[in-house]
Specification:
The chain is of the alpha+beta class and 436 residues long. 51% of the residues lie in helices and 17% in strands. It has 9 helices and 12 strands. The strands form 3 sheets. A 5-stranded antiparallel beta sheet has the order 2-1-5-4-3. The protein has a 5-stranded mixed beta sheet with strand order 7-9-10-12-11, covered by helices on one side. Strands 6-8 form a two-stranded antiparallel ribbon. Strand 3 and strand 4 (107-116) form a beta hairpin. The longest helix is centred in the middle third of the chain and has 48 residues, at 195-242.
Length: 436
């Protein structure tokens, strides 16, 4: 692919060359026309200037300039040749009264004939002489054009090089940066044509910076959170190894299995968070029925709800369609249901609902558990945050995953108390469907 510099230079130089060639051709044909007019005038003047008493022994009236080499002939009324220029080709008598063009022995001639006072005078000149004369005049007149064309080309090269210097500076400033140097590029000294490019680069670098910062934060948080359960696993293993009785060893192994389950849950949540932090590709969007999604969640979590004697069900089943990623929405709902079941007391209730409200689809999970004080709700979406006083174990990543998936679906999340003055109600409101 040719560069912008090459395109500019080739385009401008080509346009200049075409203009010069066009000007030269126009000048040549214009001068050729002028030369023909002058030559015709000279032919007529020579024919008129021949005297009546012109005799063969009269002095030669033929011009000596090779560019004005004419063939002058004269006949009397009887058709006898009275005069012919010496050393010139002899042309036939054409009995003209004006101009014409002929071709004799492969040579084209321009002839003028006139009859005056009983004498027929014929004057001829080759077209080659006229073309050479026009070309010589065109060269003398057009050579300055070529000089100026060369000067113009040099100036164009210099102008293009100077005009593209901001591009070179921009390339140098980007190439000289390290992966960690993502500060915005300056736009004050950039020409207007480059400012959109620089602004787009700055926006891209800002996104890179945010992604790298989020990745570093995620890695640091994950390392911090994994250190504690791994340490606890090692300590619990040591307790099991030091057990002096089968009962103590069994109790230690049960706690070890419990800690392994927690660690497995933490790793699973971390992987889910990393997976759903990436932007949602448009190709993954499908029509999802939230009613079927709720029914699947009840079937998947029914065993856990029964083990804790929690009433898990769907309120007013309905078909509610949204455009989204089925896997992502399934993960979102599973985390909401898992949290509700985990923090609701035995014998409690967890209700799931899908509906249309004000032209927007919504997904709602409501429980009658202890709930979350209003001052702590704003932090529930932070990674690894868990309010104090919770007996159920967890890693504090569930709602963070929910927030990421909701953001990628352009959905809003509302946290409120359940209708009974306790518990927690989580509502996910999807963006309204725009007509296409």
């Amino acid at each position: 692919m040719t560069s912008i510099r090459q395109r500019l230079l080739l385009g401008l130089l080509g346009a200049t060359l075409l203009c010069v060639l066009g000007a030269g051709a126009s000048l040549y044909f214009s001068l050729l026309e002028e030369t023909n007019e002058i030559g015709d005038l000279q032919l007529r003047q020579l024919a008129v200037a021949v005297p009546n008493e012109f005799a063969p022994d009269t002095a030669d009236a033929t011009p000596q300039d090779p560019e004005e080499a004419y063939v002058l002939q004269s006949w009397d009324a009887a058709g006898a040749l009275v005069y012919a220029a010496s050393g010139k080709p002899q042309l036939p008598r054409y009995l003209l009264d004006g101009y014409t063009r002929i071709k004799v022995n492969g040579t084209r001639w321009r002839i003028y004939g006139v009859t005056r006072r009983g004498r027929y005078v014929q004057v001829a000149q080759t077209m080659t002489v006229r073309r050479h004369l026009a070309a010589s005049m065109a060269w003398r007149a057009g050579s300055p054009l070529l000089v100026f064309a060369v000067l113009l080309a040099l100036m164009m090269v210099a102008v293009v090089a100077r005009a593209l210097k901001p591009l070179d500076r921009l390339a140098d400033s980007v190439a000289g940066r390290s992966p960690d140097a993502l500060t915005p590029l300056p736009t004050q000294e950039m020409p207007p044509e480059l400012r959109p490019v620089v602004l787009a680069l700055n926006g891209l670098m800002q996104k890179f910076d945010e992604a790298i910062t989020a990745q570093r934060t995620f890695v640091a948080d994950a390392a911090h959170e994994l250190r504690s359960p791994l340490t606890a696993l090692k300590l619990q293993l040591q307790v099991a190894e030091r057990a002096t009785s089968d009962a103590a060893r069994s109790a230690a192994l049960r706690k070890l299995h419990d800690r392994l389950d927690r660690s497995t849950h933490l790793v699973r949540q971390l992987l889910s968070l990393a997976r759903h932090e990436a932007a949602l590709a448009p190709a993954r969007l499908q029509t999802v029925d939230l009613g079927q999604l709720l029914a699947g969640a009840v079937a998947d979590h029914g065993a856990l709800a029964d083990s804790r004697e929690i009433d898990l069900g769907v309120v007013a089943p309905a078909q509610v369609l949204v455009q989204g990623d089925p896997d992502g929405l399934q993960v979102l709902l599973n985390n909401l249901v898992d949290n509700a079941l985990r923090y609701t007391q035995a014998g409690g209730t967890v209700d799931l609902q899908a509906a249309q409200q004000d032209g927007r689809a919504l997904l709602r999970v409501r429980d009658n558990g202890p709930g979350v004080p209003e001052q702590h709700r704003v932090r529930l979406f932070d990674r690894f945050y868990r309010p104090d006083g919770n007996d159920a174990w967890g890693c504090g990543l569930g709602l963070s995953i929910v927030r990421n998936i909701a953001d990628h679906h352009r959905a809003e999340i509302e946290l409120a108390e359940s209708g009974e003055g306790r518990g927690l109600c989580v509502t996910v409101r999807f963006a309204p469907v725009t007509a296409t």
